[in-house]
Amino acid sequence: MTQKEENKDLSFIYDGTLEGLFTCVFEAFAAKQIPRQILKQEIPSFFTEFYTVRTDTIKANRVLNGLRTKLSKSALNMLFVCWLSELKEMEMLIFNYIYKSFTAEQSIELNFADADVLSLSRICKKISSEAEKVRQFVRFQKTVDDTYFAVIEPLYNVLPLVSNFFENRFADQQWIIYDTKRKYGLYYDLQKTEIVYFDNLKVNTNGKLLPELLAQDECNFQHSWKEYLQALTIAERKNLKLQRQHMPKRFWKYLTEKQI
After folding, report:
1. pLDDT for 92-113, tens place per residue?
2. What is the pTM of this model?
3. Which runs of E-coded beta strand occur in the chain?
4. Phi (first) and psi of residue 114, to 5 degrees
5. Contact in structure between 22 and 29 (CB atoms under 8 Å)
6. Closest Cα partner for 128 from 170, 91, 77, 177?
């Protein structure tokens, strides 16, 4: 495709996967037709024509291989990280970035005067920051079957970004980190990490497992930890504003020391 041809009444519909989005890119280039928007599901409209794109691994891989010749590893990683944002404008941002990468005479990676490049760069920083907070503030609870369980509810879908960290950090423990907002988790069985789902997750609103699911020594540890921190606390020196700066309040409900 030598010239961008946009049909203002055409929307692509795809299955919501990254492979599906790459297939949209392939189909658009093949048809020399750029959609006005790319949607995960069809939204009825009298003024919009919908084209359903069926995910094709071969086509998606051709786009990915092409990107590897155009972009650095860090730029490719940025696209993957931004994809995890789940923002409604993300499909077209990534689409436009890929289009410009294929058609520009020079690399666009550092062209922050371009609105799409700048937006993706900023979004990537936000998601990476959220992933780092999850690495810092996850709190595990030991269950009766000796599995360590933690609940999170991050702003973005960052579980894929933190998996390797927890595999290395807790390689000698079985653990589950569950994202209650997206209703899936990661389970590490000492050998590999798999995606897991729960039909009925038995946790309180603060992410704490019900008492019957906790190991006895976990209950004792949580009680002792609260007493220890209370003994260390100097009421006159409490600085809630400073606490919020270093640890966003939305994470507090998962901390043992913050639970009543």
Report:
1. 999 999 999 999 989 999 999 9
2. 0.83
3. 6-13, 34-39, 49-52, 141-142, 148-152, 175-179, 184-188, 193-196
4. -80, 130
5. no
6. 77
Beta strand 34-39 with 6-13 is parallel
The tokens describing 99, both together, are 């289009």
Give residue 2's pLDDT band: very low, low, confident or very high (50, 70, 90). Answer: very low
Tens digits of residue pLDDT in 124-181: 999 999 999 999 989 899 998 899 999 999 999 999 999 999 999 999 999 999 999 9
In angstroms, the CA 73 to CA 172 distance is: 31
**DSSP reduced 3-state for 247:** coil
Q: Please give the single-letter amino acid code of residue 52.
A: T
In whole angstroms, what is the distance from residue 96 CA to residue 24 CA?
A: 12
Q: pLDDT for 175-188, tens place per residue? A: 999 999 999 999 99
Question: Three-state SS for 209?
Answer: strand
Helix (H, G, I), strand (E, B) or coil at 260: coil
